[in-house]
Amino acid sequence: MEITLAVIKPHVLRNTYAFQQVKQLIKQNFNVLQAKEVRITKELSEQFYAEHQGKFFYHRLTSFMNSGPCYALILQSEACIQKWRSLMGPTKVFRAVYSEPQCIRALYGLSDTRNACHGSDSEASALREIAILFPEFQVKSTAKTQVKQ
Length: 149
Ligand code: IDP
Ligand code: MG
What we know:
alpha+beta; Alpha-Beta Plaits; binds inosine-5'-diphosphate; binds magnesium ion; ATP-binding; kinase; transferase; magnesium
């Protein structure tokens, strides 16, 4: 089974209803191997989003991620990476609202930067991103223990 990294972005944590809804959707669809509230400092955020360095939204994005606590989860299921990305929906919120009005980004996204959540886009990205936010996590021993939330 595949694993992926999901991150719920700061504005969603500030909205208790939205945060609960997203967590519930996650629990219905995945094994949650790890979950924790995490403060993604500017430095960590720059490392996390290194592939976007130089883009016009890079500073805005990395500052936003450090504007409050995030919630990071390691998810497991068959075809987990694509499944979580489908539940999130398109990156751009206006597109999400138009084409997939029930996806997480359509429901809880506020702008292209504040688009509610993150999901790894490949196995390699998942491993890289998990190592940044869960440095203690041993991929090989992907314990079957599910975390209670
Ligand atoms: P993804 O999160 O769907 O994988 P990426 O292209 O990897 O999308 O972009 C990473 C993050 O950067 C997005 O989730 C979003 O927060 C932000 N972002 C992407 N494109 C834009 C944009 O055009 N304007 C503002 N922020 C953007
Ligand atoms: Mg991406």
